[in-house]
Amino acid sequence: MLKIEKLDFRYRKDRKLFDGLDLNLEKGNIYGLLGKNGAGKSTLLKIMTGLLYAQKGKAELYDTSLDKRLPKTLKEIFFLPEEIFLPDFTTAQYIDLHSVFYDRFDKSQMNEMMREFEVNAEDRLKNMSYGQKKKFIIAFALATNCSLILMDEPTNGLDIPSKSKFRKVVASMIDENRSILISTHQVRDLENLIDPVIIIENGKIIFNHTIDEISTKLNFHKVGKGEPAPENIIYSEDVFGGSYIVTANTSNEESQVDFELLFNAVLSNTNGVVEQIKNR
Amino acid sequence: MNQIFDINRTTALLKLNLSLNKKAILLAVAGFFGFVFITSFFVANNAPSLLNKMHLIFYFILIYGGTALIAGRSFWHLNSTEKSIAHLSLPASTFEKYFIPWLLSGIVWIFAAIGSYMLYSMIINGLWSGVMGFSYEAFNPFNIHMGPQSLNEAYMPYFLVHSIFFLGAAAFQKHAIPKTLLAGFIINSLFTFINLLFVMFLFGGFGDFNLTMNSPESWEPDFNYFFTDFLPRFIKTAFVYVIPVIFYVAAFFKIKEREV
Q: CA-CA distance, A192 to A211, in Å (whole number)?
């Protein structure tokens, strides 16, 4: 569906943000995009929407270049940035004026999600709290039924019940006709939701694997002080009272994936983690 | 569905643009007419013979000031990253996103300004003659007498002014109107400076060019033709027809190249 090949991008002449980045996104997945601050997650999402132009390489949706900003590609992508702008409309006005641009917009889905998120249909957007605004635009994004929905830190500003509702709503909306890509630092908010996991570092995608691959090839443990360390350690980090450890999963049984630990393990021992996952 | 221009998409974008801008435009127009009303009240009381002249001045202020203001705000929805993302990712073509503000600030505005000024003048004059017993001739923009000058001359720079502020709005992300004015001042100053340099190099100084500036009939015929016939026509054609088109094309590419 979305194809990025050999993408080069830089904001400043002396620093390349992306250096020959390749990425393919297929339908039917909720991708999790992880990376350190400044790794280029938001920039990548903007390039995927055609809001930034790549200096080299190509970014295409259904074989149409994204930097042409053609209506047929824009109506297949909805980008939900971290900081949102909503004009001084009522929710109903916003929906009426914007939904016409999306062929597959479903008003009943929108109303249902607004009820789920407890967003009042009569409120003015300007008077809403940040969290309310965010829930409204998340509902709108999902109701567009675009092929690809890109979300940058969608759970920022959401209260705890809303985060769980977000997970529920997103999980219920995914089907074989669309994909969602969520860029986040708050991996705990999205546990049991994102699959596959993509990690970006030093201008490249260094990790792109499904939860099934990760959980059958890696084990995530916490070992107390003085306890014997397991074998086949790929990564370990000391914490208060012991250490967190990532080992090779030799049992072929699925383990519970710890996203934070996985992220740290990939950043410090990319080859070790990737080789273990590819190991058959 | 056409990817450059589609009437349904354009209509939807027009509705969105009108909804986004109507409050600001209505407030500005209401403020303007409030000011005209107060001023005309004093003029009508103290110098009624100047009332029509006052209307004429305010009328052109409304047309030119309005188009500068609205054209200068044409791309206000691109003046921050968040707004730019919302607008640029909207499924409409770049041409449509360019065309709607152009249409509203350039074409719709001039008709709205003419109509609203006529309506205002008729209502106020009617009120005054009805309530206060004064009777003034209502100001009719289609019946303006400008002396020996053709009325068309007064409207000719309209698209030049519009294109300048429209390009400014496309080029400057924030504070487009003051930046456009400043840029205009700088460009004008540079142009004057280059002209002076040109004169210096060509004539070796600013002294006597053996010309009597105020009596062109005594100039050399070729010189006379160049300065009194060709050059004014050239400048008029350039400023009225050519430069606005160049500025409009430049504004389109500015919008097309805009990133967030």
A: 9
Q: Check the CA dihedral B253-B83-B102-B190 and report its sign.
A: negative
Q: Could you say which of B3, B12, B88 has the minimum Cβ distance to residue A51?
A: B88
User: What was the ipTM of the complex prediction?
Assistant: 0.92
Contact across the interface for B93 and A83, Cβ inside 8 Å: no
User: Which is it for strands A64-65 and A77-80: parallel, antiparallel or unpaired?
Assistant: unpaired
Domain boundaries, chain B: 7-259
Quickly count: other Cβ atoms within 10 Å of residue B145's Cβ: 8
A42 neighbors A82 (Cβ within 8 angstroms): yes
Tokens standing for A168? 């529920």
Interface of B with A (CB under 8 A): 1, 3, 6, 8-9, 12, 15-16, 19-20, 23, 80-86, 88-94, 259-260
For residue range A184-199, what is the model confidence (pLDDT) as tens digits?
988 888 888 999 999 9
The residue among A12, A2, A6 whose CA lies nearest residue A38 is A12
Question: How many C-beta neighbours within 10 Å does residue B86 have?
Answer: 21
| Distances, alpha carbon B121 to alpha carbons A14, A17, A231, B29, B128, in Å | 62, 61, 91, 14, 10
What phi and psi, each to the nearest 5 degrees, are found at residue A102?
A: -115, 115
User: B9 and A75: CB-CB below 8 Å?
Assistant: no
Distance from CA of A83 to the nearest CA of B (A): 6
| A110 close to A69: Cβ distance less than 8 angstroms | no
Mutate to test the interface with A, among B6, B9, B16, B95 (most CBs of A within 10 A): B16
A79/B3 CB distance under 8 A:
no
Architecture of domain A2-209: 3-Layer(aba) Sandwich (3.40)
Range A47-69 burial, b when 16+ CB lie within 10 A, else e: bbbbbbebeebebbbeeeebbbb
- Domain spans of chain A? 2-209, 211-278
Backbone angles phi, psi at A39, to 5 degrees: -70, -20
Nearest to B89 among A72, A79, A93 (CB): A79
What letter does residue B91 receive in the DSSP assignment?
S
pLDDT in tens, A36-72: 999 999 999 999 999 999 999 999 999 999 999 999 9
Q: Give the mean pLDDT of A135-151.
A: 97
If one counts every other C-beta atom within 10 angstroms of the C-beta of residue A183, the result is 23
